[in-house]
Sequence to fold (891 residues):
Amino acid sequence: MGDPLYAHGVDLAVFIIVVVRAVVAFAVLLVTVMLMIWFERKLISDMQNRIGPNRAGPFGILQTLADGIKLFFKEDLVPERSDRFVFKLAPYLSILPAFIAFAIVPVGGVVTIAGHPVELQVADPPIGILLLLAMSSIAVYGVMLAGWSSGSKYPLLGSVRASAQMISYEAALGLTVATVVLVTGSLSTRAMVISQAPAFWDWNLIRLGVVPFVVFLVAITAEVNRPPFDLVEAESELVGGFHTEYSSLRFALFYLAEFMNTITMSAVVVTLFLGGPDGPGFHFLPWLWPILWFLGKTFLFLFGYVWFRAALPRIRYDQLMDLGWKVLIPLSLGWLLFIAGLRINRVWGFAILGALVVVSPLLYRAVRIGRERVLSESRGPLQ
Amino acid sequence: MSDWTDDPTGGDMGEATSTPTGERDGPSGKEGLTLPSEVVGEPEAKQAQAHELEPDMSQEEEAERAEEEAIEKALVAETSEGDQELSPRSATPKVELFKEAGATLRIPEGSDSDIDVEVSDDQTMIINMGPQHPSTHGVLRIMMELDGETVLRTKPVVGYLHTGMEKTGEELTYVQGATNVTRMDYLSPLNNELVFSLATEELLGIELPERAVWIRMLLSELNRMSSHLMWLATNGMDLGSTSMMIYGFRERELVLGFFEKTTGLRMNHNFIRPGGVAADLPDGWEEDVELICDTIEASLLEYEELLTGQPIFRGRTEGIGILDPDTAVALSVTGPMLRASGVPWDLRRAMPYLHYDQVDFDVIVGTYGDTFDRYAVRFNEIRESIKIVRQVVERMPAGDYRAQDKKVTPPPRARIDESMEALIHHFKVFTEGFRVPEGETYVAIESPRGELGCYMVSDGSNKPLRMHIRAPSFVNLQSLPVLLRGGLVADAIAVISSVDPVMGEVDR
Fold:
């Protein structure tokens, strides 16, 4: 278990490899974010019959860089009524988890450098996927504190929405991850990738039934506040949401964190459900193909996110909560039980599935009757 | 205010929340800052408490603080809208509270009957939306009392785009008048010109040639299409569907292109004038109009796919902001909003003007009066407009495009070179204008937003003595407190958008 790199102790070469891995991942992630912002703007423009950024660099590819530089030179405003320390702290709380969560994503296979087996990922801690959950929980603090410390009403509303949304979707997220952990038998992301490696139909997407994948996809979309779940920063309602009062570099950090989260989460979906870097390889440059497979799959999701944004209106706050608590969490919980039953044997599995099929309509009916009663009681004075 | 904003560190926020209290005495605040009224007393007491919490504050700091507060108060007094603003419950008369809850015609007997006693002031927060807010359609300012995210009371504050156009109208001759009114409802300028011209012509008592009437109908319906498309676009934007916004603008562009070709301008055309229209339709206009109709008809199907069937969109709009027919009529709501509530009142059908009694079209009526119905009514009205436009193209008669009354309309350009009289008439019409017989009139048409009326009084001179526009957006806006009540902030956005206010018209 654990990273094979440390199996024979830590020497200078190992140290250098670790540092290089971290630096490369950091740099690549930053560049990817830059490209992602450009890609999103360009693709949405195409979908909307617009041209999009086309001034800075070829095809406007440097537009993000230009925007970043512009933001860097803007006045860094701290509102008078804000809690200054927390106000300044919040953007970092937001961006650091986004970086750290990417560390556990296996980007490629295992290569041998200077006699050491090196996994192409920044870290492969035994706690693996728990790190992701921990980091996405910390990211909530960034958003919540940003809104709270701004000392203004719109950010406050935004951050209340944000914390409620992120916390409730974390539950569905955790349950689906538990399903994956159940079949892998390990928390390590590397182990998850290896367990999906044998063939295409061993991918968790197919092995677990499509349900956990869909739940996970919806949950992370809500978790990273992408449309249609972007009510945290719903421009037409809350102006800018939690970052209304932010400007300059601090705003850039939030912006960066959002896109970095998108990329990280897409990579995590690929790792958990699509076999990560798994795919047919060739003898020519054998280390390259897994990386390309990984990038290709991740790109698919990034494209999907942009597509969501172009096509879907924004969901409402209470509907979002309903979706999380009344649909996704029961669904993922039921599916977890079903998969767990199947792990014992087929009889148990289908017995649980049958029980769920019987019980859930009853539960649904009970909830509905209860809600109607509440509604009919509350309707009186309002009319 | 709920308790999460009421802790000591949030004391500043508490002050911000009660700002409207302070602003209420705006007029008296101008007299000086030395006279704090009783209403202002409460936040001051809070601040005093805050002062006590910081014991070792030197004299200088205190003076500095006092100065800052004075500046802030002066700012508040300067930006205050006085009684227009939403004040806390305790400072609001009962009658107004009932009105906000929808009791328009009759205030319930016994004014100590409880209205909203279940929510006390300190659980709610007054939030200010606009005049600079992404989804207030210009400079509408809405003050909302929120309980969490639930909207309790609302008050639209208007006047930020006030340009005094009605008053200006009294200073301009009838010939110049159309230039003025066209800027009121900038999304349907031709309808504004139309109602002004109709009112003037009624006072003048002149007959229009057939072609002029049909051209007016064509333009009016095309304008309705462009206005509704624009509404679809902004509504999409408000609900977070950015693509709809671009698509709506794209299709509207076609119509504007035709307007530019016909009138020379994309907006504010001054094309429909007393006595007819300014010029004949350009060559090949039939093909252009046909192209517009075909394109928009096809893209409406695409929009249906993008929005109408979209579960998120349905969830956001169905059952939101319900306006029942009685309340709608009581609030004198008109236009698509009224029809969405199920009242089949369309001036084109009910009190036909131009030749609307000669064309075949349906009056679209909703069932539930919710936001989705208002969307559906506008959506299908575009289709009806296309239907009307097609009939107009078919039936467009040949002939003159303006009344050949030398006193009202300028002579044709060619005549000016030949005839001294024509030159004189031309000069007189554009400098002095024409005189309109004494009298008063009210003419109403169905603009894309509702009943657009023009009340005009003439004293026999070349300028109206009084020109008043009944702006549908302005009247429709007063239904907001009723519509928003009990909804969420997100619903509020959807509902404000579904009212389709154009601030230029509201504030004129």
Remarks:
- Residues 1-51 of chain B have pLDDT under 50 and may be disordered.
